[in-house]
Design goal:
CATH class of the largest domain: Alpha Beta
Mean pLDDT: 96
Distance between the termini: 60 Å
Number of domains: 3
Low-confidence stretches: none
Radius of gyration: 24 Å
CATH superfamily of the largest domain: FAD/NAD(P)-binding domain
Bound molecules: nicotinamide-adenine-dinucleotide
């Protein structure tokens, strides 16, 4: 039998593509070497959020006094926390299996590799069998990057995020190398469970791609709470459980290395002509590679490594394969992102830094002054402008920033810190995606009392 579509990788890109192509009546085969759900469901988003939720429950219980609640003898059982995480993951993976079964999609568990390819045929091997398809979608994801620092290899104190999630025991102390998204989420988890944490970041700031005013609020809170955060600090060597840096030496029971991820290219060796840039597969706006009938989606493209980007890319790829009109595209300018620290950070669209880079060297249109042209306005308010936020976030300020294009008054970006901003950043994504002006956004009614109303308050002042 020849399939319409073969998919390598069963993460958010792969299973989304499999489901929609099968639903459209096509014969689809999907290969997965570990577990359906990929990194996100098994060793990424879902298990971290489950552990973080337990940590937050414990943290809130131990800080309940500020809400007038007395909680004595509060304790946690880490074994139970980890067991619950495993249960949640199992349940969601079973859900994916069920969905694919319902759509009569062929699921093959095993490591697949491309054997050969022509413009209308791809041959894939998995175990002893070979399979043929008209189209191939590569969704092989990414793996943790291990930097070339002496002492990281064959060192039992070194963890990557998968090992940290798998550990049945809480470390006594933890050094986290890399203050990016993974690093700061694990810093939150361990800190809230009482583990001494040191974060070592090579750049002058943690979370370097985010709005720095927002990041500084987190940085200040975490430092005050006792998390040691070293910036502008490079790790030069690791000796057992000792980390040697440009800023002194540090020791901990375990060292988590979270300095980024790299595209997974195993099994694709036969595609010798596929175009690669910076380790990721190059794709066009429809997720087509330079090889006819070969598409790629998700982390393997090395674009934005987020599960929700992967699944949207899969929708676009399958839409193009099926020639569904109008052709779909991804609005890369309106991809929300969330960092699950406490408080959460959520943002969408351009930052001030992005806009300054775009307009670098521009001057005011009148040319009457040598002042650099600042093409945007920043409107912002603390989250405490929302009554609901004040009611539920004792002692927190939060911040909501809206970046508006000066000339058109279009909303270009929204950047927030404060719980639970991950839950309403979608409203901001909608505004950025639809190109709302401030005037149009003002007409949107927000329910009261909600924390989201702070966004409306900011817009009303714009
Ligand atoms: P990242 O790119 O977000 O952060 C890596 C950090 O490590 C950067 O701040 C970088 O400056 C620093 N760094 C690099 N080399 C270093 C070194 N030698 N010493 C010290 N610091 C160093 O990568 P990540 O945190 O590993 O996450 C990987 C991917 O997974 C990212 O694309 C991320 O967006 C995604 N992810 C997303 C979420 C989420 O959406 N909530 C959660 C986890 C991971």
């Amino acid at each position: 039998m020849k399939y319409f579509l073969a998919i390598i990788g069963g993460g958010p890109a792969g299973y989304t593509a499999a489901e929609i192509a099968s639903k459209a009546g096509k014969d689809v085969i999907i290969f997965e070497q570990n577990a359906l759900g990929g990194t996100c469901l098994n060793v990424g988003c879902i298990p971290t959020k489950t552990l973080l939720y337990s940590a937050k429950q414990y943290y809130n219980a131990t800080h309940a006094d500020k809400y007038g609640v007395k909680a004595e003898g509060v304790a946690f059982d880490y074994t139970k926390i980890v067991q619950r995480k495993t249960k949640v993951v199992r349940k969601l993976v079973a859900g994916i299996k069920q969905k694919l079964n319902n759509e009569h999609c062929t699921v093959i568990m095993g490591a697949a590799s491309v054997v050969s390819r022509t413009d209308d045929n791809v041959v894939i091997a998995c175990g002893e069998e070979q399979y043929e398809a008209e189209n191939l979608l590569i969704c092989t994801g990414s793996t943790n990057f291990v930097p070339p620092i002496p002492g990281l290899q064959d060192n039992p104190t070194i963890w990557d995020s998968t090992m940290a999630l798998d550990s049945k025991e809480l470390p006594q102390s933890m050094i986290i190398v890399g203050g990016g998204v993974i690093g700061m989420e694990f810093a939150t988890l361990y800190h809230e469970l009482g583990v001494p944490v040191t974060v070592i970041e090579a750049m002058p700031t943690i979370l370097p791609n985010l709005d720095q005013e927002i990041v500084n609020i987190l940085l200040e809170k975490y430092r005050k709470a006792g998390i040691q955060i070293l910036t502008d600090t490079k790790v030069t060597e690791v000796q057992g459980n000792r980390v040697v840096t440009t800023n002194g030496e540090y020791e901990a029971e375990h060292i988590l290395v979270s300095v980024g991820r790299r595209a997974n290219m195993q099994g694709l060796e036969a595609l010798t002509d596929i175009e690669i840039h910076r380790g990721g597969i190059v794709v066009d706006e429809f997720m087509r590679t330079n090889l006819k009938n070969v598409y790629a989606a998700g982390d393997v493209t090395g674009k934005i490594m987020l599960a929700h980007v992967a699944s949207r890319q899969a929708e676009v790829a399958v839409g193009r394969m099926l020639k569904q009109l109008p052709l779909q595209r991804i609005a890369y300018n309106a991809i929300p992102s969330v960092v699950y620290t406490n408080p959460e950070i959520a943002c969408v669209g351009l930052t001030e830094k992005d806009l300054n880079e775009i307009h670098e060297g521009d001057f005011a249109p009148s040319m009457s002054t040598d002042e650099p042209f600042v093409p945007y306005e920043v409107h912002q308010l603390p989250m405490t402008y929302s009554g609901r936020f004040v009611a539920e976030n004792e002692g927190e300020m939060g911040l909501c920033k809206v970046i508006v294009d000066k000339r058109s008054k279009t909303v270009m970006g929204v950047h927030m810190i404060g719980n639970p901003c991950s839950e309403f950043v979608t409203a901001a994504s909608f505004a950025v995606r639809m190109g709302y002006t401030v005037g149009e956004f003002k007409q949107v009614v927000f329910p009261h009392p909600t924390v989201a109303e702070v966004m409306r308050e900011v817009i009303m002042e714009a």
